[in-house]
Please model this.
Amino acid sequence: MDSSFTHGILIVDDDIMILKLIKNIFQNHYEVKISVSAEEGLKTLRNGFRPAVIVADHVMPKMTGSEFLKQAAQFSPNSTRVLLVGHNETKDIVSAVGEASAYMYLTKPFMETELLQAIKIGIDYHKQKSILSSYQEKEVKLVTELKRLNQMVQSLNNEKSAIFDESMKAIASIIAVNEKFYFTGHTKYVNAISRGIGELMRLRSDIMTSIYLATQVHNIVTIKMPERFKLFSPYDIVNENDLGAYIKFFNESLNILKNISAFKDITPIVGQIYEHSDGTGLPSGLQKGQFLIEAQVVSIANIYHNKVYQLEPAHYAHLTMEGQYVQSKDHTARRHKKAIQFIENKKSWFDEKIHSRFMELVESEKCPELKPIPEDLVLNYVE
Model:
């Protein structure tokens, strides 16, 4: 259990013995506050206490536990609510739990192990809700900024203007907050590599502009995803349920761009970055000739950077527990070689010209972003 007092528990019960029992069990692990009545519990919440878990006895004088939990949600909506009920109260449990919007209930008398498990589940559920709320706040900020940019773009006659470029940087900075599992700036690297490929291919200026815009916003597809998905690309996911969930979050995030008219030409590019020329890609299994060349350019750059500078899933636990993870320069060099070999082995995923120009760019060593950084890299964990 967490002993850093980063989570709190509020226990409300008119039985002082129950209060003391629960407090003695958890006070060495969490910040615990107790109240002998619903009124006192609400006062504690009014004074600013925001617990991860609220435990309330159902049968109490003046106010039932379900009524209390319903009111408590107004002060601390993200708290996990647990209702305590006696054996003779079980016939009313469905309506009581529904009224309280309780996450779970425990039947009294309960075993200590049952209570320990319930609180642990409640803490974990609260953390998940808090993370989701954080993502939703970021999403609101992103949508607001995109709408502001959309209004600005509508008044521009030249989308290459300095104002437009600065606005794109503002959007990229918002998305960058979501790129917390990279040792280097993901958007910056994908843009530089994509630009290098496009220049070798001598692509038209309008296509180069589309590639630039797509690289700035392509990682928007992860903005709504749970933290665990941010360490994977869809082709790395083998569990069908996880893959289905990934695609669902992918499409939900993509809709943010679809609803902004200024990005109507960019959305298809972003939506195709995981499609492959041989038809094995996602989400639609498109084949060569069915999707945009811009998507392939961004795709190969995105794969390289993910393979070299995205935190490996095996190191996630170390990062979250220690707060920091160091990738040595030797490990970066090894990941670079493996990334190049991976792209070579998957050449059927890409248009032949795009694959050839990428390999040419690597061999020429003219693109700094395609050379492994010769120093140890430090990644700090930010919740």
Remarks:
- The chain has two domains: 8-125, 156-380.
- The mean pLDDT is 85.
